[in-house]
Specification:
Layout (H helix, E strand, L loop, with lengths): L8 H17 L5 H12 L3 H29 L2 H20 L3 H18 L1 H12 L4 H11 L2 H39 L7 H11 L7 H29 L4 H8 L2 H13 L7 H9 L1 H12 L4 H27 L4 H51 L11
Helix pairs in contact: 1-7, 1-8, 2-3, 2-8, 3-5, 3-6, 3-16, 4-5, 4-8, 6-7, 6-15, 6-16, 7-12, 7-15, 10-11, 10-15, 10-16, 11-15, 12-15, 13-15, 13-16, 14-15, 14-16, 15-16
Length: 393
């Protein structure tokens, strides 16, 4: 499974990785910095802003299958370029919002943009361009975009301090037009000719089993629920386990480097193995960390963060490479949209549901849920097999 990087893919990886960093930083990671000042300016609780953001994730999940089908038919360059225009419109709508309901409507526009321009669309674009050889480019763009929060949070905080949250949204909108649009439109190759699509469809063959789709959908839903819960509640969870506030924050800072380190390992050492092997190992990262935290408490906060971060880093890549390895490239975009829809829906409710469980049941119940979901995801991955290596008509 050690597929070489396709010729000429380095430019595409750099372009898409940079555009993805911009897209994630100006959408998914935006509420962490701007939700409170947005809410304060309208005199509403910040939970209302997060609720509007959750609604945008739900809309993104519902639209994703149609976006994937469009990429399968026409290629991803036009869709990704369109996402920059929609991102710019949504961010401008946020900046100009006179009240909460306008703000909520603008977040729905952002949800449409996220379905057009985040990882699923980029992965489908690469699968259409490179077929089974897309594994290395997919890993490459996640390596670059893995720094989205590291870059975007300080930038958003500095812009908000200097220009307010409205000026910050306008600045991000401008970057989509000046940077993101040229990257996606000018540096991403056009769709391959129709005969290439026909060849990819033939290469896919029938799915390995009727359970392959539901198994993968469960894997992605479980792991994305955990990722959403940890992103919102990791410091609280670690402090409840006995870590000090400073130790919890320091442990949380290790997740980003751990994710990137694991993706480097996937790009190098693990690249010689089938993506199913990487995904199975990644699914064990969180439950191992949960076990260590449950046994040793607060002093194990850093170990938990590193294990969780490494597993989450590789599972992000698996979201793109597993459907390609199990089913082949034919119909990849539509299948990606269907597989990702349950994950996005669960992720949108993860912060609220996990927060309730942590408050009612404590650390033990919270870790039992997330650790159990991860183990179940690993078992589901053990039931999956790769698609045949030779094309089948």
């Amino acid at each position: 499974m050690n597929e070489p990087a396709p010729a000429g893919s380095r430019r595409v990886v750099i372009a898409l990785g940079s555009a993805q960093t911009l897209a994630w930083g100006s959408s998914y990671y935006l509420p962490a910095i701007l939700a409170v000042p947005m809410a304060d300016s309208f005199g509403i609780p910040s939970s209302w802003v997060f609720g509007a953001f959750s609604a945008s994730l739900i809309l993104s999940a519902l639209v994703a299958p149609a976006v994937g089908r469009a990429i399968d038919v026409r290629g991803g360059r036009g869709v990704l370029a369109l996402s920059n225009l929609v991102f710019a419109a949504g961010l401008a709508g946020l900046a100009l919002a006179p009240g909460f309901w306008w703000l909520a409507a603008a977040w729905l526009v952002m949800g449409l943009a996220m379905s057009l321009g985040l990882y699923d669309a980029a992965f489908a674009t690469l699968a259409g361009l490179y077929g089974r050889a897309a594994r290395a480019p997919i890993t490459g763009i996640t390596l670059i975009a893995g720094f989205a929060s590291t870059v975007a949070w300080p930038v958003s905080a500095l812009l908000e301090e200097g220009f307010g949250w409205r000026g910050t949204c306008l600045a991000w909108a401008g970057l989509h037009l000046l940077l993101g649009l040229p990257l996606n439109r000018l540096l991403v190759p056009p769709a391959p000719p129709p005969e290439r699509h026909a060849a990819a469809a033939a290469e896919a063959g029938p799915p390995p089993s009727r359970l392959a789709m539901p198994l993968l959908a469960f894997v992605f839903a479980a792991t994305w629920f955990i990722a959403g819960a940890m992103a919102a509640h990791l410091p609280t969870l670690l402090q409840a386990a006995g870590a000090t506030s400073a130790a919890a924050v320091a442990a949380g800072a290790l997740i980003g480097p751990a994710q990137v380190a694991a993706r480097v390992a996937e790009f190098g050492l693990l690249r010689r193995f089938h993506p199913l092997v990487s995904a199975r190992l990644a699914a064990l990262g969180h439950p191992l960390g949960a076990l260590v935290l449950a046994v040793f408490g607060g002093p194990a906060a850093a170990a938990f963060a590193v294990l969780h971060g490494m597993g989450n880093g590789v599972m992000t890549i698996a979201k793109g490479t597993l459907p390609l390895a199990v089913f082949g490239p034919g119909g990849y975009g539509a299948r990606q949209g269907l597989l990702g829809a349950p994950a996005r829906l669960l992720q949108s409710g993860a912060p609220f549901l996990f927060g309730l469980l942590l408050e009612a049941g404590g650390v033990g119940a919270a870790l039992l849920l997330t650790g159990g979901l991860s183990v179940a995801a690993c078992l589901a991955l053990l039931l999956l097999q790769a698609a045949p290596a030779t094309p089948r008509a």
